[in-house]
Amino acid sequence: MVWITLLANLFVAWFLAVADATTLPLPITKIGCQDKCGNVSIPYPFGVGDDPNCYGEAKFKLVCNTKFDPPLLFMERDERVSTPIIDISLLQGQLTILLWISRQCHTINGTFTNDWFYLWLNLKDDYKVSNIRNKFIAIGCDTQAILMDTSGKSFQTGCISYCTDVKSVINGSCTGIGCCETAIPKGVNSINISFASYYNHSKSWNFSRCSYAFLADIQWFKFYVSDLWDFPNRVEYNHIYPDNGQNLPAPPVVVDWGIGNLTCKEALQANQTKVDACGRNTNCSDSENAPGYHCLCKQGFEGNPYLLDGCKDVDECADPEKNSCVAICSNTEGSYNCSCPSGYYGNGVNATKGGSGCTPFKKDFPLTQLILGTSFGVLFVLIGSSVVFCAFQKRKLMKLREKFFQQNGGMFLQQQLSSHDRLVDTIKIFTSEELKKATDNYNERRILGRGGYGTVYKGILSDDRVVAIKKSKVIDKAQIEQFINEVLILSQINHRNVVKLLGCCLETEVPLLVYEYITNGTLHHHIHNQKHKNSFSWRKRLIIASETAGALAYLHSAASQPIIHRDVKSTNILLDENYTAKVSDFGASRLVAFDQTQLSTLVQGTMGYLDPEYLHTSLLTDKSDVYSFGVVLVELLTARKVLSLEQPEEQRNLAMYFVSSMKENRLMELLDERIVQEEDLEEIHEVASLARRCLRVNGEERPTMKEVAMELEGLRVSKKHAWMEQDHEETTHLLGEMPIPALETNPSNTSFNQVTMSILDAGR
Ligand SMILES: *[C@@H]1O[C@H](CO)[C@@H](O)[C@H](O)[C@H]1NC(C)=O
Ligand SMILES: *[C@@H]1O[C@H](CO)[C@@H](O)[C@H](O)[C@H]1NC(C)=O
Ligand SMILES: *[C@@H]1O[C@H](CO)[C@@H](O)[C@H](O)[C@H]1NC(C)=O
Ligand SMILES: *[C@@H]1O[C@H](CO)[C@@H](O)[C@H](O)[C@H]1NC(C)=O
Ligand SMILES: *[C@@H]1O[C@H](CO)[C@@H](O)[C@H](O)[C@H]1NC(C)=O
Ligand SMILES: *[C@@H]1O[C@H](CO)[C@@H](O)[C@H](O)[C@H]1NC(C)=O
Ligand SMILES: *[C@@H]1O[C@H](CO)[C@@H](O)[C@H](O)[C@H]1NC(C)=O
Ligand SMILES: *[C@@H]1O[C@H](CO)[C@@H](O)[C@H](O)[C@H]1NC(C)=O
Ligand SMILES: *[C@@H]1O[C@H](CO)[C@@H](O)[C@H](O)[C@H]1NC(C)=O
Ligand SMILES: *[C@@H]1O[C@H](CO)[C@@H](O)[C@H](O)[C@H]1NC(C)=O
Ligand SMILES: *[C@@H]1O[C@H](CO)[C@@H](O)[C@H](O)[C@H]1NC(C)=O
């Protein structure tokens, strides 16, 4: 099993354009059916047009005259009379229509004027006026309004409003003074209104001598004193009154509807298998007012429950409001699971919501892991409050993919590819489907490693090639071009000791990178794993050191644009079955935005390998790689941990301990006994002296990677080689001249030590 460890040494805040993706609208109609009339959405089972596939039952067939007008609902009594529908709600099983007001006016002498109109309503039996959402309302100061069904036989109700003086009218209160309201009975679908009055509006007042009466959605209606003068002009909706062709004010009225005419229970009995009109992942609920039932998406699903597959899983992980995870949130069908990253225990559910959160294990917690752990913690809280990538795969549509492709610089990459013909072969653009399949839908079991850059999966392509697939973290939009350039540069690197980038995929929210798969684990694993005790000879170590140095030197100089690895360490050096070294992960450090202001508070690189000069300058140079490589050499020589908290203070940082031991001629005490017993101590001493030069505090005094590589290559081929002698002399010469840096004799005096020590202190 290969652990390509990606350490959390860099992070990028990544609350980016994720929200866009989640608001992707779900389909509301069957495929090919009109889903809008005017600006009213028409969800199935409602439909317009003649295709019976587009509406659920005859009663849900609406008329859409033009693209710009709202759909119409026709009356039972007179098929020519219709009311416009301004909203259709699947959730409550309701629709909102516009229904005219009734008006009757008098002269001061008490006689009727000709200016009147009466509302009537006569809906088909399938629709009922909502008794919960609507009220019957009358406005006037000498008004009795009566509401009845068209036959006048099944019910009559009404209210009385009176006032003598506008001062007695309460603004905003419809309670009988200037305005009155009353509830309407259940199951009403036909209506007639009539008026009466005590004084025929013949009192001497200066407001309107009209009575108004109407049905209205109580969420819409509010009474103002000014309505006594001019109610009709305040109504923002209107509709042509068929009897006289006038455009009359028409308040919104909510109408209930239901599927079929059976209850849920009856419907289920009728079919045995399922409630007919409801799709998958739905519940059925009886309609309170209209005949029939309603369908609802089950908890954890959303969409149109009347379509067979209309209810889609809600990605709770995408919205911090919808989940209570503190760290890792994984979406499941209809729900989600919380968990903690490795190194933590607990159920991952926020403690304020009854969970146990995530708590780090305390025992044996080395500094690197502590830093790592906290990084992970922060990262996973970020992740928890945002989107888990996997959840996206499901809902991804072509459009979304294309968007990501554009967003990830796909167009730019394609341009580059077509202008560099020779690149076409070296880098392949994979589709998201291919990689999803290769990783068994990003199966947890395929994870090779996680880190600050992302997650690495083992993948098997359709041609049976085994690859490592890295899912990056979100990249800043401004960095896209740089990212593409990096991909192009990396794809051109063809060095036997560098892990090869095979291709990438830009169709997902974040780019995916595809690397060759290296079988034999990391160098770190081989140095520190007890099982490999006898097999890891000095010879092997020297070859690995030489190959690694060669690869880094190549990156620093040979590539068209120098590439600084920035995170050289034994975990980033992979070994194949022949112990051939493969430097990995150098691309990632360049992929991430290098923003000084963002990173000034963060440690870039891995503690123990980090160039001390960087702590002063915040600049990583090619000499930083030399320093880190020096630490790897020391690791190879000593097989000791790079940072070990359990050691006495002066021994905690391996690099510093090594340098001071060298100075005191105590190298032998440090060496890995496995190699001491072997041949060639002279060779070991030469490598130790090289390592010491790589570890100089002043970057400029360190050899270049090329010099290091040449020296190691010389040792590897034959230490008696002519140029080696010369080089060695030079080395001794330089060493003789170099004053030992002050910090090595007086550690407490230097900022390097202060910084390192304060980090160590923080770790305790
Ligand atoms: C619907 O369209 C009408 C007329 O085109 C417009 O006045 C109204 O504001 C629109 N309503 C919505 C909710 O967009
Ligand atoms: C109301 O009656 C008065 C006389 O009482 C008359 O002058 C006036 O024209 C009448 N107004 C209307 C609108 O009938
Ligand atoms: C409504 O009531 C009025 C009387 O107020 C009556 O003339 C009319 O015929 C009724 N309309 C219907 C449709 O019953
Ligand atoms: C009545 O209330 C509304 C809103 O609450 C306000 O705009 C209006 O000015 C008030 N009218 C009077 C007469 O107070
Ligand atoms: C109101 O008008 C009706 C008919 O128009 C009439 O019969 C009645 O007497 C009038 N009432 C008053 C108080 O003027
Ligand atoms: C109506 O009369 C009241 C007093 O009864 C007065 O305060 C108000 O200003 C008058 N309004 C108009 C529009 O004349
Ligand atoms: C329900 O509808 C069916 C056909 O649509 C009809 O035959 C039946 O009589 C209706 N039942 C009730 C109780 O309305
Ligand atoms: C019952 O439901 C199934 C699945 O929707 C459908 O195929 C079948 O025709 C229905 N049976 C009856 C008797 O309605
Ligand atoms: C749906 O039905 C299931 C049982 O069939 C019930 O547990 C669940 O609470 C219901 N959900 C809703 C939203 O009604
Ligand atoms: C836990 O929930 C509370 C309240 O909802 C919230 O304030 C807090 O930030 C949450 N903690 C974490 C770690 O998400
Ligand atoms: C989610 O958690 C439950 C209980 O902890 C477990 O049974 C289930 O398999 C988990 N589902 C997934 C997809 O991890």
UniProtKB/TrEMBL annotation:
Task: Please state where this protein is localized.
Answer: Membrane
- Keywords, alphabetical: ATP-binding, Disulfide bond, EGF-like domain, Glycoprotein, Kinase, Membrane, Nucleotide-binding, Phosphoprotein, Repeat, Serine/threonine-protein kinase, Signal, Transferase, Transmembrane, Transmembrane helix
Please list which residues make up the signal peptide. 1-21
Which GO molecular function terms does the record list? Answer: ATP binding; calcium ion binding; polysaccharide binding; protein serine/threonine kinase activity
The answer on whether this UniProt entry bears the keyword Ribosomal protein reads: no
Name the domain of life this protein comes from: Eukaryota
Report how it sits in the membrane.
Answer: Single-pass type I membrane protein
Q: Name one GO cellular component term.
A: plasma membrane
Q: Which stretches are transmembrane?
A: 370-392
Q: Which InterPro entries match?
A: EGF, EGF-like_Ca-bd_dom, EGF-type_Asp/Asn_hydroxyl_site, EGF_Ca-bd_CS, Kinase-like_dom_sf, NOTCH1_EGF-like, Prot_kinase_dom, Protein_kinase_ATP_BS
Q: Which Gene3D superfamilies match?
A: Laminin, Phosphorylase Kinase, domain 1, Transferase(Phosphotransferase) domain 1
Q: Which residues form the EGF-like domain?
A: 313-350
Q: Which GO terms describe its biological process?
A: cell surface receptor signaling pathway
Protein kinase domain mapped to chain residues: 442-724
Q: What are the binding positions for ATP in this chain?
A: 471
Q: What does this protein do?
A: Serine/threonine-protein kinase that may function as a signaling receptor of extracellular matrix component. Binding to pectin may have significance in the control of cell expansion, morphogenesis and development.
Q: What is this protein called?
A: Uncharacterized protein
Q: What is the organism of origin for this protein? A: Stephania japonica
What is this organism's lineage? Answer: Eukaryota, Viridiplantae, Streptophyta, Embryophyta, Tracheophyta
